[in-house]
Amino acid sequence: QVQLVESGGGVVQAGGSLRLSCAASGRTLSSYAMGWFRQAPGKEREVVSAISRDGRSTYYADSVEGRFTISRDNAKNTVYLQMNSLKPEDTAIYYCAAALSPAVRTILRRTNEYRYWGQGTQVTVSS
To answer: What is the rounded distance in angstroms from the CA atom of residue 113 to the CA atom of residue 120?
Structure first.
């Protein structure tokens, strides 16, 4: 079993940047496909970005394409989400998720594909 802890959230003005981190413990992260999701008040949890085990395949939701960058450092057991040009509509709780994956290039985009979740970190973008 893997435990995930997100950090790096906060309050930022529109146009600003934040870098989220997701630190894993309990298992080596290199066996897991990873994803970042977010949930705004009154809305369903949605995928923001995902990355394969080897980091060579990535996915971005249309709403964040070109502004967010996902990356991972398997040696540090950490996944990152660099968020630039933030908009008020990016305001949400951001969750990190992990799923065991037999294939190194697999991208997982649905919430029900992930078994392990962090507690979330709040991102608030003011206008």
So the answer is: 18
* Amino acid code (one letter) for 62: D
Distances (CA, A) of 86 to 66, 92, 102: 11, 12, 34
Phi/psi at 65 (5° precision): -55, 130
Closest-CA residue to 18 (of 29, 28, 7, 27): 7
First-to-last alpha carbon distance for the chain, in angstroms, is 40
pLDDT digits (tens, 9 = 90+) for 55-100: 999 999 999 999 999 999 999 999 999 999 999 999 999 999 999 9
Residue 6 to residue 95: CA distance in whole angstroms: 7
